[in-house]
Here is the input.
Amino acid sequence: MIFRQLYEPESSTYTYLFACPDSGQAVLLDPVIDTLERDLLLLQELGLTLAYTLETHVHADHLTSARKLKHLVGAKIAGPAMDALPCTDFGVAEDRPLTVGSITFKPLFTPGHTDTHHSYLVADGGTGRVFTGDALLIDGCGRTDFQSGDPAVLYRSIHDKLFALPDDTLVYPAHDYNHRRVSTVAQERERNPRLGAGKTLAEFVEIMHNLNLPYPKKMDFAVPGNKKCGECPDEAPEDLRKLCDVSVQG
Here is the structure.
């Protein structure tokens, strides 16, 4: 499997590139409109055809490039079937994985950050990798104070679905704010300050209710825009609307 971990600094978002070396078919997980040109260039350099973009959830801190990539290179759009977005070509669910070439993305329903959030388990030889979106982060987790977030639901998702994976499963989050790139299930289960070391549900709920995080600065246009797979609402900044415009080639 061809694999790249890519970073967008403004929202501290990781986008992941996967490709089947035999077919040359690729998938971008959680692509960001701001890094559209970078991603297109990388696909070209590696001689890959983008078959799908795939989302873990409807993001509040950046706008997806799924719609623009579909327009430019014909990539189909995949995301949680529960979102029922008219712009999605393939809805993933725990009983409906996405397979591209030799790569299969096994969805794990992990609500709590949002009520339709999915993580993805990908096997690469003997190594298991789980892409946890905004559910489980390195030494942290996604916030639960908007988009139908629920700390009790997130606690159960992480413990029942993610912490139940083998210890050596590699954990790749959708964000990191301290330039960390990868963890393991064992490490997060043992030392995650919000969830690890036997933290109880009550302790976790109290932690989450007292985070006092700022309002996401892009949320008011990112959420409605991402519900249309990356169409910019009128209230989006002008420079971002230019990136979203499908009549502009890149």
Remarks:
- The mean pLDDT is 96.
- The first strand starts at residue 2 and ends at 8.
- Residues 110-171+178-213 form a domain with the Metallo-beta-lactamase; Chain A fold (CATH 3.60.15.10).
- The chain has two domains: 1-98+219-250, 110-171+178-213.
